[in-house]
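for the writeup, i need someone to sanity check this before i put it in the appendix. the sequnce is what the collaborator sent (i think, or maybe the updated version? ugh). structure was predicted straight from it, no edits. if anything looks off just tell me and ill rerun, i have time this weekend
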Amino acid sequence: MDQQLANLLVAFWTTGDPDAAKVLADRLAELDSESVAQALVEFRQLVKVAPALHEAGRLACEAALTAIRSFSRAVGPLRRDRENFRP
């Protein structure tokens, strides 16, 4: 899918703006039916997986934050020897 078409699809999908729909319709009218069909299939796949990708990213960030907090708690009580930990 070309980048312009992808941007137009996203603009319409996220806003629902009638003007965005008109611009998208004009662009789709310029394409052959096979290109339109392929673009719609690719866009549908993207829309279906986007929530799962968002959730995976959120969970990864939560796990990283938990690991950092655990590491911080584990290292926090270590004795700060002046020779090894200079200011």
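The mean pLDDT is 86. Residues 33-75 form the longest helix (43 residues).
thx in advance!!
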